[in-house]
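quick one, 92 residues, struct below
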Amino acid sequence: MQVAGDLCAQLDVAALRQGTDDAWPNGATFANHARLAIVDDAAFYLGSQNWYPANLVELGFIVDDAAVTQQLRDGYFTQAWTSSARAMASCQ
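---
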């Protein structure tokens, strides 16, 4: 199906990783409830809203500002993605 192929070419999903380790020094695994979606390098959503029906009170922000989106990419996302991409979910 072409739509699925197009989506796979544009969407990457991975659990957040920190560096090369998957746990804190005491062995506890990382817990992170944040969701981040960057759209066209011009806007992003950052929050805790589950992306499925859960009937929970959640908080999130949509920022529609290309300069601020670039700051997020440079200061946070690029490093986080470099660490996380090794566990990226396959779209195939």
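The chain is about 30% helix and 15% strand.
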